[in-house]
Hints:
52% of the residues lie in helices and 9% in strands. The protein contains 19 helices and nine strands.
Amino acid sequence: MTVIELSFEQAMLVLDKALQKKHLSNIQEMVLRLCWSGYTYAEIAESSGYDDDYIRDVGFRLWQMLSKALGENIAKSNVKTVLRRHYSSLKQVDSQVSTIAAFPTPKIQQQQDWGEAIDVSVFYGRQKEQELLQRWIIDEKCRLLMLLGMGGIGKTALSVKVAEKLQSKFDFVFWRSLRNSPAISDLMRELISFVSQQSAASLPENLDVQISYLMKYLRSRRCLILLDNIESLLQSGETSGHYCTGYEGYGQLLRRIGDEVHQSCLVFTTRETPSGFTAREGDALPVRSLQLTGLSAVESQQILATKGLVDSTDECQQLIQRYAGNPLALKIVATTIQHLFDGNICQFLQQGSVIFGDIWEILEQQFNRLSANEKQVMYSLAVKQDWVSLQHLQQYVIPQISERELLEALFSLQRRSLIEQRSASYTQPTVVMEYVSENLIGKVCCEIPTAENYSLA
């Protein structure tokens, strides 16, 4: 007799039917997934950062829950055998149902709504990132993915490029920009109408019920949803990740899509990590993030060549390094070099300043979102112009803040992609450091009293 090799995704289909309206929590699914892969409780605790006893307790309650749902004793040692047997039974039932056509399923016509998605017919590099995202979405069935990076790094273009490559794998593809901060009710109305093929004539007012309605379609149909610029929904002037008043529903939507079992995927792009995401992501979990950094030297040179810059390799390398391979910044500066310096990179580099125009505006927008503590940390790093240890950094921040506040600020700045970390030391990308330095000089100059500020005695 041939033994069926059951995948974890097939096992989850068995449990989805057995548990009916109930679903495994995020931590329960993680424990089950890793047990399925042969991890011990101690290994699960170590890889996830949880206490060993807590993981064992989660496992104990999980087996109790599954035993009750499936009507027989289930433990870590026999879970594969039991679920394999139930899966075989389901296949037989499904076959019988198909034969008598008791529950005919209407044919789903593949549909796509690209909204305001940009044209990516000209696209530079990111081959490794494309392959990684494709593996996560198709092979590993991830449910929620975040593309994180500073402004201009290429998050939007990558999301569209990957969606174009994978569109044939999905029944529905839905792409939307959140730059203008649409209300969650408006997005849900559009999204549900689309995936239901306009069969949902009216929706309840309650958001939780609306999301449940959407989840039904995400379980029964293969949907790829892409939301661009989620940072537009987040508050400025505070540590990163807090939703603006009235937009907390987006967090509720992301949590449920990440936590509940379904066969679809939501990808979102952002300059900062929304609250609640970090606790859910992990290398062995269906919620993951990809932080984008600058393009490689070869890919960056392609951008410069497209703009007609063909100076020596050394000069091109200097230019690429100063802008950390940021594709948008390279496109902007290449146009400037052509118009103001007759295409001479060397002359541009000699004039000193690399932050101007649209590049300044991009960084200004992101810097203005920072909390007071984050700005102080950024100023301190810019003054040092080098890697700074956590211990030394606390001494440089003026006015001084507590260790807790410093750690919160550093963590928030990492989530905004504005600092780099190596071991326990921190610095800023070159282009960010130059902006912050100029910003600090302007701030100091404004605060220095002049003769006009004084009256003669």
